[in-house]
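Provenance and format

Records in this collection were gathered into a single text stream. Each protein contributes a sequence line and a token line. The two records reproduced below are adjacent in the stream.
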Amino acid sequence: MILQIPTIRFLRIFHSRILNKTILKIAVPSSFGMISQTAVMITDTAMVGSLGVTEQAATGLGGMIFWTLISFLFGGSIGIQIIAARRIGENNRFSAGLILTTGLIFFSIFGAILAITGYIFSPFLITVLTNKAEILELAVPFLQIRFLGIIFYLLNAVFAGFYDATGKTYISMSSSIAIALTNIILNWIMIFGNAGAPALGVKGAALASSIAGLAGFSILIIFIFQKSFRPFFQKDTRRFKSSVLQEILKIGFAPAMEGFFMHLAFLMFYRLAANISTVSVAATNIVVSIMSISFMPGYAFGIAATTLMGQAMGAKKFKLAEFAVKRSVNYASMLMGSLGINFIIFRRQIISFFTEDPDVMNEAVTALIIVSLAQVGDAYQLVMSSALRGAGLVNWVLRINASVSFLIMLPAAYFAGITLGFGTAGLWSSVFIWLICLGLLFNYKFKKGDWKKGVV
């Protein structure tokens, strides 16, 4: 009888209930949005990979630096989602509207400043990670071009945080699809010189991604004028308010630092891979691209957990919040666990999509198997951390993420990959440990129940 209880509870995700339908209504469009974003990463990696190992390593390093630096600002998007969801749960649409417009104005200004400074300091940022001339020659212009289009990605994040807080994640999905299609088409044109355009190689990949951000922004700005959003976007809410910005920064600072530290940890992870070999960097870039596929369900159901947690807590419905999170993590675990199994079974076929180089293939295969075994732990850490942020425990989640990343994951990566000489496989064994530890810690905190006291 004891063994049947968790099975029965898990099977509740297949029941036709209002809560399940609400979770899926939020998560499924988010999943499709993530599929679109993942398609961009995969096609970028595959198309650039066809140019050579050095090109793949250069875009991997440049891309990781780009996302590390702007991940701090993306915390503002998470802050917007958390606060807006809580205000909507409190039936305070005026405040939710002010959150959107204040965020748009602030990130427009800051994005322009970041574009200029990022372009100027791109050579320095690349040399921090590698001194290999062949990589520097390609990675520097790649990163500079990516910075020129950064403002649209920041504004997209602000809009997405607001739309996701309302539960209408299909809007973010539409933007993501537009970005993906634009990026893939422009990659085909600009990387290889099709349709009469010059072949720009790595520079073409960066330019395609920058322009694609504008396409996504165009979709998002259209939806705000829909009838259903008019209560949020009245004349009185179309202005900047410093007190609202302080609120966004207060809640968004911890998620911002969390994203920054996570990407910084992976920058150092890439640095360790670069110390091993260019092949190791290329293999790591491929595995990161593949794992972004399994990341999708966790991210999508994390959005559902954050939105429903915020709205339910705003309405003082704590039991509903608890049920929503548990169901969300069950959905994510089932999907991500299934993907992990398929990654192991079809590992060589999947990796062959990115590269035919036998050395890169062998390095990537072992790493993919290792990290695929931790997919359920990844599901728990993604959904539970999102839920705890939605409850207001942003600082606690930050401390745990930073501690596990820098005190456990990176030392383990150095010890196994460098000291013991296990190479790429040793590096990725540390990611397995990282995901399992985070999943256990976040699950423990949620079960403890003190998140019910969180204030936003």
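Adjacent record:
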Amino acid sequence: MRWSEALGHEVVDTSTAEAVGRVDALVLDPQDSSITAFVVGDRVVSWSDTGGIGSDAVTISGSELLRAPRTGTEEGAVDGSSRPLSKPILTEDGYALGELNDIEFDPVTGSVQLLITDDDEIAGSRLMGAGSFAVIVSSASRTSSDGDPDALTKTELYELAKDRDIDGRSNMTKDQLLDALG
């Protein structure tokens, strides 16, 4: 499921079968690369307190599970200051990889699968931090040393090809850059 798809889902109290609000935002924990809570108005419900998120709704067993934010990350999600969409994605060594357009996550566990830009998808496992200015991911050199060049974006592959002075790199697709760097 994508972050943008989750927004607006009704939050339903299964004990009363009543809608108690809508999902206004999600709480992203970059340390665990996961969604940890849903924002409903000025309140929060922990992922672990939900029955999960389906194609139409998030279910909770009682409206008392909606609570005030407890952490700075939750407060930032409620007030909008730490919402990650539309923020630049930077590597830990400062390279810009584009703007975060969406986040794909597992609807059962909340685990972040992909960070999505206009041009590329970045493995959720690379997520390192998210704040009021940017989303930070591990650098290309760190990822490539981990042995997974497929996890690199086209921009990062281009920079590696530039470092190796590979001819024709500016006209290559991501797959061609992978082959040339192979």
